[in-house]
Structures are given as structure tokens and as C-alpha cells.
Amino acid sequence: MNTSAEVIEKPNHKKQFFFDEFLDYLSVEKGLAKNTLEAYRQDLVRYDEFIKKEKISDWSDIRRAHILKFLAAEGRRGLESTSVARALVSIKLFHRYLAKERYVREDVTSVLESPKLWKKLPYFLTLQEMEAILNAPDSRTPMGIRDRALLECLYATGMRVSELTGLTIENVYLDNHFIKCRGKGDKERIVPIGSVAVSACRIYLEKVRRKIKAPTGHFFLGRNGKGLTRQSVWKMIKKYAIRASITKPIKPHTFRHSFATHLLERGADLRVVQELLGHSDISTTQIYTHVSGNRLKSVHAQFHPRG
């Protein structure tokens, strides 16, 4: 009979089995989003390839030195520090799982600390740049009407691109000016949507979407009637950024950064912005206070007795 300290004997388990079982555990027990699970899988696949090169065939034979060597190799490969840090998180979660299920005797990552990272200030668009890109689609064409509505919706709500592409028509309440959004960890939140975006979405529904035979309930549709992908939205935004003569790096998340920054610059409460963005931890939202320095300076000058 096994004691809790003993390793469970499981015959001929392949590493792929461990990965699949581990990712199922994260999905079911932790409720992680598909994108997060896929990122963890990619990290573990690279980790497994490295372990094979080290001629290690059993997870029990891995030592801390092997993990540190792998992380160093990832850094030399040109990965940013944030990606290396996430790889370490993936590895630590995996080894903790192996120890919890008693596939190995100890968690070799228990004393490994995640590297302290410099927080990168997010890119965001100025109000003038945002106005330019929102006006870039050709509203005389069906796809231009759709794209204008999509860009207005991104900026009005601060949604992640995965939330936008997963948005269904029954979760858009234009009469009440809000959207029901499903975010990370399958958490649901209510996001207000302004009158300009509501108007653009109404025009899209009337002139474009209702004329498309859609086999899906997605709100934003492609020419084929299916929901848009994250990649197609990214390409769309790159196209309109060029048309608007915006040279700074831009992607769908730039709209989210701009949404938060513009709210804070105009005096919005940090806790409200946290709620709108769907951040579970306010420290994630606080990064936007750094990019709205002009607002802080103006408030200081206005209210401080020596300003």
C-alpha cells in the first residue's frame, strides 16, 4: 500500500500524456482560457524538446540546473523577458502538478523565483491618432461599414480582441447601451458602449449583417458569414493604421491601452477602469497611471498650494 510520500507507479506513461492531463487539469480545475492553455502547451513542448536534448527520459531526473539552463537558452533565442517569465510559470505549474499527483517525489521548482521584470509602458494612440484610424474605413462599402463598427466597438469598450471575436449578437444590447462580455477565465462582465459606437453598430446591423446568411451567432462576421478570427482583426487594424499614417506599433490591444489611458487622463477612477477592463487585480490596471503623466501633472499644478 502506498503512503502519501510514495510515487505512484504508472506503466509507460509518455510525456504527451502528462501534458494533456496537466492541461485538462488547468482547464477544468483552474478555468483557464484557451489562449492561456495554448501558450502553456507551447512552452512545455519547447521544454520537452530541450529535456530530450539533455538525454533525460524521466521527469524525476530533472534538476533545477536543467530548468535554469533551459530558461537561459530561451533568452538567447531572442525571447522577451516576459515570455521567459511565462515559460517559467508554465514549468513551475507543471512540476507542481507532477508532485501533487505523486508522479515525482518532489517539486524541483519550489525554490525557483520568477524573474523580476521591468514593466513595459503600453503603446497607446493619442486622441488625434484614434480619430484618424476610426475614420479610415470606407463607409461606402459593406466591409468598410463593418470595420468602422468594429473599431468603434473596440475603442468604446476596451474589450480584448478574443472577447470581441467571441461576441454574439444576443449579448449586444444597443438599446440599453451595454455589451455582455465573456473574458479571461470565462468571467462575464457588463461593459457600457457609447452613442457613437452604438450608431456605427446599428448601421452595420441594418446595412450589412442582416443581409449575410450567417451559420453562426457571432456579431461581427466575415464575407463567408462566419465569425472573424483574431488574426483577421489584427490585419484589419494594421491596414487602417497605414491608411491613417500611424507609424507607432499598433495591434488590437493598442485600442484597449488607449481606452484605459484616455479614461484616466480625463479623470476616471482607477477602480472603475479596473472593472471596465475586467482586471482581477488592480495592480494590472495601475500601469496606465504611468502613461497618463500629463494628467497627473495638471492635477498637481491645479490643486497643490505650491503648484
Structure description:
- Strands 1-2-3 form a three-stranded antiparallel β-sheet.
- The model is unreliable at about 1-15 (pLDDT under 50).
- Helix 1 packs antiparallel against helix 2 (about 35-55).
- It has about 300 residues and is mainly alpha-helical.
- The chain is globular, with a radius of gyration of 24 Å.
- About 55% of the residues lie in helices and about 5% in strands.
Low-confidence runs? 1-13
Structural class: mainly alpha
How many runs of DSSP E, i.e. beta strands?
A: 3
Radius of gyration: 24 Å
What strand line-up does the widest sheet have? 1-2-3
User: Which overall shape is indicated by the principal axes computed on the Cα atoms?
Assistant: globular
What are the main properties of this structure?
single chain, 307 residues, mainly alpha, DNA polymerase, domain 1, hpI Integrase, Chain A, 2 domains, 3-stranded antiparallel sheet, 14 helices, 54% helix
Question: What is the secondary structure topology, with strand pairs?
Answer:
Elements: H1 15-30, H2 34-53, H3 64-76, H4 81-100, H5 127-134, H6 142-157, H7 161-165, E1 172-173, E2 178-182, E3 188-192, H8 195-207, H9 230-243, H10 252-265, H11 270-277, H12 282-285, H13 287-291, H14 293-303
Antiparallel strand pairs: 1-2, 2-3
Helix pairs in contact: 1-2, 2-4, 3-4, 6-8, 6-10
What is this entry, summarized?
This protein is mainly α and 307 residues long.
